[in-house]
């Protein structure tokens, strides 16, 4: 006779972040492809659109990265934004306030992605450790003593 057993017994560990060099490789390749596609479709005169797209890429990469990967991810995205998304293409420039704002935006996007992933993983781990709590309050979150 066949006896069915669940494969996922016990507490599951919180997912480990991806190694920093792998995240940076993803930032390099993703920013390269993203800027190339944007330059082909809309041209090089729209740095705001490129900044938005690279910020989304940085946030997505932050979902699977460590906090220590955030500065490198932001700098790699900024290099492609500054070097290829604004004219003259292929020339790195530094325009004080503009580039500082762009770097801050990319760093913030990466940190927000990483923070959201950590909070989501911590909440999931807490729910796995306290299975009886959800049944007491009916999933409303007000607990046995009310709020």
Structural notes for this entry:
This protein is mainly α. 63% of the residues lie in helices and 0% in strands. It is built from 5 helices and no strands. Helix 2 runs parallel beside helix 4 (96-129). The relative contact order is 0.14. The mean pLDDT is 85.
What's a concise summary of this model?
This protein is mainly α and 147 residues long.
How much helix is in the residues?
55-70%
Please summarize the sheet with the most strands.
Answer: none
Subunit arrangement of the protein: single chain
Q: Give the structural class.
A: mainly alpha
- Summarize the helix and strand pattern as letters: HHHHH
Alpha plus pi helix count:
5
Distance between the termini: 51 Å
Sheet-strand content, in percent, reads under 5%
Number-wise, the strands total 0
What global shape is seen? elongated
Low-confidence parts, pLDDT < 50 over ≥5 residues?
Answer: none
From the alpha-carbon coordinates, what is the Rg to the nearest angstrom? 21 Å
Global mean pLDDT: 85
Which keywords apply here?
147 residues, mainly alpha, elongated, membrane, Integral membrane protein, transmembrane
Summarize the topology.
Layout: H1 20-41, H2 47-62, H3 70-84, H4 96-129, H5 131-136
Helix pairs in contact: 1-2, 1-3, 2-3, 2-4, 3-4
